[in-house]
Amino acid sequence: MTGFIETLRYMTAAQKPAKGVSVYTLFVNRPAGRVLAALAYRAGATPNQLTVLGALFTFPALAAVALVRPGPGLAVCVCAALAVGFALDAADGQLARTQRSGSPSGEWLDHVLDCVKLVTVHLVVLVSFYRFFSLPSPAFLLAPMLFELAAVVIFFAGILTEQLKRRTTAPAAPAAPAESAPALRSVLLLPVDYGVTCLGFLFLGSQHVFLSVYCTLLLAHLVFMAAFLVKWFRELR
User: Fold this and answer.
1) Strand locations in the chain (E)
2) Which helix (H) or strand (E) holds 193?
3) Alpha-carbon gap, residue 114 to 85, rounded angstroms
């Protein structure tokens, strides 16, 4: 038990900076991932194994959304599986930093699976809308397509911006601890946090509520996509 606590403390000290993350990632997903990473470290697991384990939680849950008629039981199971998969996605990086075993191949695997996940989550919602929902209008079938567009553009443009900044700017000063992140910014970023999208599936059993939640998150993603693209372009100029 003492070794586990020490490992947890070390991972906390080696945590990534809090800039650009929401309160869900900061106070829920990263702490949960830290516990999973510490358990994996004690068990001798590798970061890639955690990445694959996260996929094993995520993709069967997404397949169920497309194949099973929505209901309260399915909603709880899907939400829980997606949340665990997201926590494992945070755990693999923390484990890699603890083991000092990060590698280009591991980062590649993590990002590729993240991209597949972002595409798949909205594809299965589209299928579920078509098969099981009584939509107010067929136009609502466009919602998952637009959501997928916004989510993938934000994901790709964010990574590309980060890589280009590394090539064109001098090394930055050490980042401030997570607790110093501006509270307002962390709250404002909540609608575009993947974890909040996962929580949205908790309402899958009620078609009208889920449709309202999903479309609200879609609008937030479209607004943030436009804002992020302008911001990142200006920064790179």
Assistant:
1) none
2) none
3) 11
Q: pLDDT tens digits for 67-124?
A: 999 999 999 999 999 999 999 999 998 999 888 887 899 999 999 999 999 999 999 9
Residue 87 burial by CB count (10 A; 0-12/13-18/19+): exposed, middle or buried?
Answer: buried
Residue 218 contacts residue 150 (beta carbons within 8 Å):
yes
Contact 124, 81 (CB under 8 A): no
H-helix or E-strand spanning residue 107:
helix 104-132
Identity of the residue numbered 69:
R
Distances (CA, A) of 232 to 45, 181, 218, 223: 37, 19, 21, 14
Residue the block writes with tokens 């990263």: 30
Whole-angstrom distance, CA of residue 23 vs CA of residue 43: 29
Residue reference for tokens 């700017």: 169
Q: Is residue 220 within 8 Å of residue 190, measured between CB atoms?
A: no
Alpha-carbon distance 176 to 229, whole Å? Answer: 25
Report the alpha-carbon distance of residue 110 to residue 166 in Å, rounded: 20
Amino acid at 192: V
Domains within the chain, CATH numbers bracketed: 2-169+180-236 (1.20.120.1760)
Rounded distance between C-alpha atoms, residue 224 and residue 55, angstroms: 27
pTM of the entire predicted model: 0.90
